[in-house]
Amino acid sequence: MHRHDGLPLEPDALLFAPSPPEIGTVLSAQTDAKTGQKRKSGCAGFLVAPLLGVFGFLTGMWVSESLLPNDPSAVQLLGIAGAVTFAGVAFVLMRSIHPLEGQCSYVGTDGAVLFERKGKRVKTIALVPFKDVADVRVESTGHGSYGIHTSYLVAFTFVDRQGRTIARIAGMHFPDGKGQGSQSYWLGKRAHEAWQAFRLAQMIG
Fold first, then answer.
1. Helix (H, G, I), strand (E, B) or coil at 164
2. pLDDT single digits (tens) 60-118
């Protein structure tokens, strides 16, 4: 299996969603998710949780001393309960704020698709059935300085027979070398080429 830019798909690449039957035989696939990938916030959660645990312990002791000044065991128990509560809440919140994220995409003989993952949720960002596409509009905007463009924002807009947008796939392209560009750029480019092949086959057949 190759990526959209023609390079081999990495051994640890994680295609977290299967290709839908609407796109036909898969020609290329790409993802920025890796096997064994962990949440970015894991370290932050482990660092913040103990600090809030100490804060919770001190808060629990202060509350218990105010309410039960003559009961040392209650002071300790409430202090420990506060520590556990604050540390647990902090760790859960840190993990939920920064869930696992990523994108994966496929180009097939009959269409293309782009998925996005946030935590356990997988969402279809773009689905392009080639049978519904009448034209592909390509726009390129150069970025650089002193009149020298070092990167381009390229947008591929797939439209139907009524001129309505089916999907718009845009990404950055850096022309210095093969494979230099965002996944969305190569997805749009490869889908455009596959649609041209699809249309030619229909005309011939």
1. coil
2. 444 455 555 555 554 455 445 544 564 555 554 444 444 468 899 999 999 999 999 98
Contact indicator for 115, 183 with CB cutoff of 8 Å: no
109-129 CB burial, b ≥16 within 10 A, e <16: ebbbbbbbbeeeeeeeebbbb
The CATH label, of 1.10.10, 2.60.120, 2.30.29, 1.10.3470, for the domain at 21-36+101-204 is: 2.30.29
Q: What's the angle, vertex CA 62, arms to CA 57 and CA 68, rounded to 5?
A: 115
Give 20's DSSP letter.
P
Q: pTM value?
A: 0.68
How far is 130 from 111, CA to CA, in rounded Å? 5
